[in-house]
Amino acid sequence: MKLTKAQKDSIKGMPIPDKCPGCGHKHFLFFDEIVEMREYHEGYNVPGAAMSPLVQLCCECCSMMFFYSALRLGLVGTDGKVKL
């Protein structure tokens, strides 16, 4: 789901690395959407498997990905409902 302007504004101060630990590059691409990562079950779709809502940051040089918890950033509540 795409982040709203209010959600984007609320996370402007989130910690971003000074440089990529993979290649040392200093420029990152922020993806303005909440994505889900599910618990792995050998490739099978398992209803009820644990899901983590995340926002992503990507190094523009080597494509190393950083994942930030949408729960900890206050974008999603513990009930799974989107805030703001």
Keyword list:
84 residues, mainly beta
Describe this structure in words.
This protein has a 3-stranded antiparallel beta sheet with strand order 1-2-3, with no helix packed on it. 7% of the residues lie in helices and 30% in strands. The protein has one helix at residues 5-10; strands at residues 28-38, 51-59, 65-69. Strand 2 (51-59) and strand 3 (65-69) form a beta hairpin. It has one domain (1-11, 18-40, 50-78). With 84 residues, the protein is mainly β.
Number of structural units classed as domains? 1
Helix proportion of residues, in percent? under 10%
How far apart, in Å, are the first and last alpha carbons? 13 Å
Spatial extent as radius of gyration? 14 Å
Mean pLDDT: 90
List the helices and strands and how they pair.
Blueprint: H1 5-10, E1 28-38, E2 51-59, E3 65-69
Antiparallel strand pairs: 1-2, 2-3
Provide a concise account of the structure shown.
This protein is about 5% helix and about 30% strand. With about 80 residues, the chain is mainly beta.
